[in-house]
Amino acid sequence: MPSARVLLARVVLVAGVAGALTLAPAASAAAGSKVVKQATGPTPWCAPEVEALPGDVCYLDGNSKAQARRTLVIFLHGAIAKNTSWSQNHERMLLRLAKATGIEVLFPQSPLTAVGYVWPGAVEKQESVEKDLIDGWMAAKRLVEKRDTRPFDDVFVMGFSSGAYFASSLAMRGRLDVDGYAVFAGGQPMGARATPVERFSPVFVGVCANDSTTAAHSRAFAGSLAAAGIPRAVREQRVGHGLDHVHFTSALAYLRGKNRSRLAAR
Q1: In the CATH hierarchy, which fold is given to the domain comprising 4-35+50-264?
Q2: Sign (positive/negative) of CA torsion 76, 55, 140, 196?
Q3: Chain center to CA of 47
Q4: Tens digit of pLDDT for each residue in 143-166?
Q5: Residue 33, Cβ neighbours under 10 Å: how many?
Q6: What is the spatial distance between Cα 162 and Cα 115, in angstroms, rounded to a whole number?
Q7: In whole numbers, what is the pLDDT of the chain averaged over residues?
Q8: In this structure, which of 53, 62, 118, 246 has its CB flanked by the most CB atoms within 10 Å?
Q9: Structural domain boundaries of the chain?
Q10: What is the pLDDT of residue 34?
Q11: How far apart are the C-alpha atoms of 120 and 126, rounded to whole Å?
Q12: ∠ CA 78-83-86, rounded to 5°
């Protein structure tokens, strides 16, 4: 896994990908060169236009409730520096994607480290903190379901960059009872586990082929999925280190299709 400092250096490109649904590729690439303005001090984790839930989880409403099927994405962000508004830039990008696809998104905060907000890399570090993290995500999910009196039909965990490495580990270990995973610009290859996993959820791997830091890792993770017999889809895009909207919409289509097939087979 790349160091947290490398991921922090690259995550600045997310600001340019924020308008990926509406910008032409050339315009999006040009926007990616902009430097994110530093905040003068601590800023709220959740942007003003999204809802802050307990436990440092932001709720992004893409009006999924109006859809025939209600879909929730738990999105694990990329590395975010301290005392910046980067988390809010992430959220605004995802809110546009959520509204375009009719889904809802939970955007939880990762642990704070010396270099910023990054998800734990080594499996040992993940296992030491992930129960509390996952409990917080599920509590936020239940809160939203309870107040709307309608459960989610699809629940997916997706991760970008630092979040992709964590999400890929969760997927390989069958750590959550969710309907699927997706990782973009990252992935943590793992060998077979000594203790078999009862049920694997399908995984979408978005390979950012122009990203020299993560492309090989994403491909290696896809190889680990194949070796373990985990259902998967792999899509390569000639893009750099960013959340590509084609990757995102392709992941949704694949995971929704797999979940519909699974439910129909019951």
Answers
A1: Rossmann fold (3.40.50)
A2: positive
A3: 18
A4: 999 998 899 999 999 999 999 999
A5: 10
A6: 13
A7: 84
A8: 118
A9: 4-35+50-264
A10: 39
A11: 5
A12: 35
Q: Would you say residue 123 has pLDDT above 90?
A: no
Distances, alpha carbon 43 to alpha carbons 52, 262, 266, in Å: 13, 42, 47
What confidence tens digit (pLDDT) does each residue in 185-226 have? Answer: 999 988 766 555 667 899 999 999 999 999 999 999 999 999
pTM metric for this prediction: 0.84
Ordered DSSP codes for the chain: ---HHHHHHHHTTHHHHTTTTTS-HHHHHHHTTSPPPBPSS---SS-TTSEEETTTEEEEE--GGGSSS-EEEEEE---B-TTBSHHHHHHHHHHHHHHHHT-EEEEEPPPEETTEE----SHHHHHHHHHHHHHHHHHHHHHHHHHHT---SEEEEEEETHHHHHHHHHHHTT-S--SEEEEES--------SSPPS-PPPEEEEEETT-TTTHHHHHHHHHHHHHHT--EEEEEES--SS--HHHHHHHHHHHHHHHHHHHHT-
Q: 177: which 2 tokens?
A: 């009872």
C-alpha–C-alpha distance, residues 254 and 13, integer Å? 26
Residue recorded with tokens 């400092």:
5
Strand-pair category, 57-61 with 51-53? antiparallel
Per cent of the chain over pLDDT 70 is: 81
